[in-house]
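Residues determine shape. Take a concrete instance:
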Amino acid sequence: MQRKVLINWFTTAKGQVLQKQEAAYLRRSITASCKQVVLQVGALGWENKFIDCSLYEQFYVLDNEQFAWPESKLLRGESSALPLQSDSVDLVILPHLLEFDTNKHQVLREVERVLKPEGKLIILSFNPWNIYINLQYLCHKEKSAPWWPNLVSRTKMEDWLRLLNFEVEIAAGFDFDSSRTSTADAEQRKNDIRITAYAIKAIKRRYHLIPLTPVKKYQSKLVMARLIDIPYRQKEYDKNS
């Protein structure tokens, strides 16, 4: 199943419900200032639903095939080799990108490379345990594609992020219930196995090793003086007695 199928699916009734929930989550999760660099890897076409492209001067969307919202700045490139300098981005958004990428670990390593220390990462991904998502994959599966979708669960994704020194800050879950639009409700559903998709917000931590110097052998002169002084006083006492 190609990513363009996903773009078309978001125009369906179920896709619109999921889009509304994810857009609300992204609006609340994007805490970068207007002057900071925000990178979205993988175009959706409805970026205007969760970010004001005219307000964020350095909001870039990187994609090699799809087109983003016209007001955003589009970059052409591969997700596994981001054409950006190390430690240059404040926020990275991966909206349903890893489901279609065969080199997920390399993508995450590239994201870790370009993010600044304490930079933030937002991931949107489908739930591999959802029956509807798996049926959609089988209906649109290409002949050369594997028989089963290569989806990653939220817990496994969090384990991958911890290996790259990311600290998971917030997780959320989404479904096809149109009455649920609050982010707080989505955070409560993160562990529900029936959710359609999930979101993760993580922070890149950079830990510095503190060198330890060898401890010098220390002897107290006061203690030694007392040890010598006690037998001396005992000898003087014996003479006088």
